[in-house]
Amino acid sequence: MHPRLAADLDRLPSLLDTTVAAAARGLASLEDRPVAVAVPIPALVPVPEHGIGLGGALTSFAETWEAGLSGSAGPRYLGFVTGGATPASVAGDWLASAYDQNVAAGGDSLAPELQRQTLTWLAELFGIGTAHRGSFVTGATVSNTVGLAIAREWIGEQLGADVSRDGVAALGPVTVLSGTPHSSIPKAMSVLGLGRDRLQRVPTLLGREAVDVVALETALASLDGKPAIVVANAGTVNTVDFDDLRAIAALRERYPFWLHVDGSFGAFAALSPEHAHLVDGLDLADSICLDLHKWLNVPYDAAVQFSRRLDLQTKVFQNTASYLTVVGDDPDLIHLTPENSQRFRALPTWFSLVAYGREGHREIVERDIALARALGDRIDADQALRLLAPVRLNVVCLTLAQNPTPERVNALAAAVAASGEAFLTGTVYDGTPGLRAAFCNWSTSMEDVELVHAALAKAAELCSPVD
Known about the structure:
Layout: H1 3-10, H2 12-28, H3 53-64, H4 87-99, H5 111-125, E1 133-137, H6 140-159, H7 163-166, E2 176-178, H8 184-191, E3 199-201, H9 213-221, E4 228-233, H10 245-250, E5 257-262, E6 287-291, H11 292-295, E7 303-307, H12 310-317, H13 346-380, E8 385-387, E9 395-400, H14 406-419, E10 425-429, E11 432-438, H15 446-462
Parallel strand pairs: 2-3, 2-4, 4-5, 5-6
Antiparallel strand pairs: 1-7, 6-7, 8-9, 9-11, 10-11
């Protein structure tokens, strides 16, 4: 064994204690660490010829890189839709690395069974039921891609083609219909050979991002019975608007289509009795996307996908090799997603669900919704800022009250980030440039709302028009 490896092995318990201390300092610094950082990029150096051991690597990381990491795990990182990591999920993530299980195939470990149990819990949590089977994937993009891949196979089934063997060319043009699709949908369509331009945007309700179901029916009727894919939203990115899932599903009585629901973070409304009606009909979907490193607050990367058609899913993703089990009624996870190698991704989720239960995660969801509303109220009362849309759940979509040009809104975002108090990402809503504040973090409080609003108000003053 290499001397450095042998030395680290001999000192491993104390080195792990040092690592834990470093992680604890990092977590403790989140209240004071700048939420977004802009520091010089370290000079590029050649790969080390002679290592310096784990202790030396910890020191080098602290001296060179650690200060340049953002406070994205903290309470005021409101950019994109980013959760943090609950204490229990951090512990689960560390153990997932320590045990280093590949859960793709079974027979040598209980890890795949823990993964299946966790998926069963998630299905129960979101009211999906037993008709769906789930798999862990890296994020919402892969979850949406898997769902559309199964949908593509279903289209082939309707047309008498075997896409997994004959290729997507056997289908001819496939229409994908959606009101306000997430950017990962056309990306998935490109990956799957369906083509980005085959995405047909359906009109939405007046002043909403939710699809107009009457317009959707008109679009389906225009296909003259040809099977299609409908992508519905359980929470849009800008305003967390919800399509009427039950009404959309009812259209399948008259038109052939696969219903995929992108519930990446909006489906977490199911955890709140006050908001669960928003996802009524989720269990009627053919495939579902859920992203756990958002509102479940487990570390990157973790998402799940659910599907009704396990047979079609295994046709797409089965992996045939002499050293693998054959695909049966209860296939190994290797046959369900693109990855042959799969990290023990369920363990952080299992830890968080066991540690805090349905009640604890419901509290996170309901608190974040209340905090989003509180920020919305402050924006509404601020003469320098205005809401671009009602605060429907956990995202506040806002802009400058006067002259919100792209340049001025970008300057607003940059000024907020430079303050170190908060981080918001830009968007365009109904043609107007704006910012989005997405509340997903388990540790965000009302004090954080006050700090975020103060940072926005101060930045708005800096960006006030001189003309």
